[in-house]
Design goal:
The structure is a single chain. The protein is an alpha/beta fold and 186 residues long. 31% of the residues lie in helices and 20% in strands. The chain contains seven helices and nine strands; from the N terminus they run αββαβααβαβαβαβββ. Strand 1 and strand 2 (29-32) form a beta hairpin. Helix 1 (5-16) packs across helix 6 (118-127). It is globular.
């Protein structure tokens, strides 16, 4: 898959100034923001019409990018996670005290993923850290599986839309609990 690096750089620049972007992921289009920017994360929730208590996924290009938020994660849990990373598996882990509450909402856990998708990886490398990842759709509607659907849902409300193709998954990533191994979303 070809990655438009100029578009990735522009999207990363938008993230740095509080922007909200859309980008292709493994199975659906995602909305992203800087997880440390409360106003940007709130804007994602407003665009989705999603209650802030639901929390968000942090997606990264490498485990190192997630390290500041994994201080409560045992080596056994990390070993389980590494078996599926990089890849389309999101893991729910104990939330670090370094994680702002607006990322994990009402939960004492946070969902994290190291993506193998070339656009997501390039975006996180260029941004130099993890980003918020949530499906690009208003709450209760089907996740966008095309750039056109992203435009229908959000129009000019987004600061950037990164071009690219979806990965090979047919829907949102699998979510597993790193403590128990249980599948929370298949």
């Amino acid at each position: 898959m070809i990655v438009n690096q100029l578009a990735v750089e522009r999207a990363a620049d938008a993230l740095c100034v509080g922007g909200v972007i859309a980008y292709p992921t493994e199975g659906v289009w995602g909305l992203g923001a800087d997880p440390m920017d409360r106003a940007a994360v709130r804007r994602v929730g407003e665009l989705k019409r999603r209650p802030p208590a639901h929390g968000y996924i942090l997606v990264a290009a490498s485990e190192d990018q997630l390290d500041p938020y994994l201080d409560g994660v045992s080596e056994d849990m990390r070993a389980k996670m590494r078996l599926s990373w990089p890849g389309p598996v999101t893991w729910v882990v104990p939330a670090s005290r370094a994680l702002p509450r607006w990322v994990n909402g009402r939960f004492e856990t946070v969902a994290v993923r190291v993506s193998a998708h070339p656009v997501v990886s390039a975006l996180c490398r260029t941004f130099d850290g993890p980003i918020i990842s949530t499906s690009a759709n208003p709450h209760g509607m089907a996740p966008a599986r095309s750039r056109l659907r992203v435009q229908v849902y959000f129009g000019a409300q987004l600061d950037r839309v990164v071009p690219g193709e979806l990965g090979g998954s047919l829907g949102p990533t699998t979510i597993r609990d790193a403590r128990t191994g249980a599948v929370l979303r298949g």
